[in-house]
Design a protein that fits this description.
By secondary structure, the chain is of the alpha/beta class. It contains 11 helices and 21 strands.
Length: about 425
């Protein structure tokens, strides 16, 4: 890979999310089949779907990597050769592997498919990276616990042919590179086999042994305690430093997230990466865009501080200030858009639009009508279809967003004024 041809790698939990990733600027996606992947909660891909995904990706000049990154038990190994061979038959561009036994079997059964070493392996030094390269790895996904300085040092001491991939956005595990036993201990759902129940996000209380049944809150704040609740990673405004450190692939976490999340984060990092490669400052819309998805408080992980990603002690849940109001079904004519509702919205209400071709922009929906052609003031019903007049075309597949909790515009007069300003004074 050309050192300046930095790859943007997005998650794809199913075909809808894969299409969103490619539509909004990903160079490659990573996905899983129905076995041996670390995200069992995602729909994932059958063999036929995997073949179709690869065909679509290659037609666009893009790539598909398949996660085979669980730690399989001995009794599961008999199923592995057939699965690996089916991935190679589908034409996938690489297998993402964490277990050395799986690596050995992949070299035997899929000799024509690249091997990428998963972050679960915990690579934090050049000797480990070089050893894995000697064993056949074309790429290592570094442990998330490395600083930028350590990454640059590793890059300087490893073969140039060995590609370096890092995570730039998404959830951070409270344990080292995802090696957590809490979920298995509390619920029997093994986090190392794709079934994590995320007990690190739970709200905890304390019970003293001589007072059974009496629960006492552990209070960091009035809302409770969230001592294990790691911030989400966000490196959108630090891509030049990552590129300078020698990274060649920037990975977005989130195979269990919805297609809107994939579209929004991919769009933001596409804008950030293109600017970084052109030597331009971060576009002003990028960081606000990342606030329009469901997320935990952001931080920069370990990149600038070995002390860790930091905890969000104020709350245990997500920041959800925005919601998808509608998805565009395409333009009816030059001035009217056809929409499918996702959350209630109103005629005359300014909505923020996310589409692949341009920066996010705002529109006001005027002359809103239901499927029967009747004028309506609101779209309150799930997936109901409406048409509305807009001054700016909104392509099919675009997302229209609104701030959560906002009510009907204060008055028709104000709405008309907003519409005139946003729609060019028509």
């Amino acid at each position: 890979m050309n050192p300046r041809n930095i790859e943007l790698l997005s998650p794809a939990g199913d075909f809808e999310r894969l299409r969103a990733a490619f539509r909004y600027g990903a160079d490659a996606v990573y996905l899983a089949g129905h076995v041996f992947g670390m995200r069992s909660a995602s729909p994932n891909f059958s063999h036929e779907e995997m073949c179709e995904a690869v065909q679509l990706a290659h037609s666009l000049g893009k790539k598909v990597y398949v996660t085979c990154n669980t730690l399989p038990r001995g009794n599961e190994l008999a199923e592995l050769p057939g699965y690996l061979e089916s991935c190679e038959a589908a034409g996938v561009d690489a297998l993402i592997i964490s277990d050395l036994g799986v690596l050995r079997m992949a070299k035997r059964h899929t000799p024509n498919t690249e091997i990428h070493i998963s972050t679960q392996t915990g690579v934090v030094n050049a000797e480990a990276a070089c050893m894995l390269h000697e064993l056949g790895a074309a790429r290592v996904v570094l442990a998330r616990e490395m600083t930028l300085e350590e990454i640059a040092e590793l890059r300087a001491k490893t073969p140039k042919e060995l590609e370096i991939e890092v995570f730039v956005h998404g959830a951070m595990c409270v344990s080292f590179s995802g090696r957590c036993l809490l979920s298995n201990y509390f619920t029997g759902r093994d986090g190392n086999r794709g079934e994590c129940a995320q007990p690190c996000r739970w709200k905890y209380s304390l019970m003293e042994e001589t007072r059974p049944g009496r629960y006492m809150p552990i209070e960091e704040t009035e809302n409770g305690t969230f001592i294990l609740n790691s911030r989400d990673l966000c490196m959108a405004d630090h891509l030049p430093e990552l590129i300078e450190a020698g990274v060649c692939s920037l990975k977005i976490e989130g195979r269990a997230k919805a297609d809107y999340y994939v579209a929004s984060v991919t769009k933001a990092y596409r804008g950030a990466l293109d600017a970084a490669l052109a030597g331009k400052p971060l576009p002003g819309w990028v960081l606000p865009e990342l606030d329009k998805i469901s997320h935990r408080a952001y931080g920069t992980g370990f990149y600038f501080d070995k002390g860790g990603p930091g905890q969000d002690s104020e709350r245990g849940g997500y920041v959800r200030d925005w919601e998808v109001a509608a998805v565009s079904l395409g333009m009816v004519d030059d001035t009217h858009v056809h929409l499918s509702q996702r959350n209630r919205f109103f005629a005359g209400e300014p909505l923020d639009v996310l589409c692949p071709e341009e920066e996010p922009f705002t529109v006001v929906l005027e002359e809103m009508k239901n499927a029967e052609g009747e004028g309506i003031e609101a779209a309150p019903h799930a997936t109901m279809e409406v048409t509305a007049r807009v001054s700016h075309p909104i392509p099919a597949g675009a997302y229209l967003r609104r701030r959560r909790g906002e009510k009907n515009p204060v008055s028709a007069e104000v709405s008309a004024q907003q519409a005139a300003q946003l729609n060019g004074g028509e």
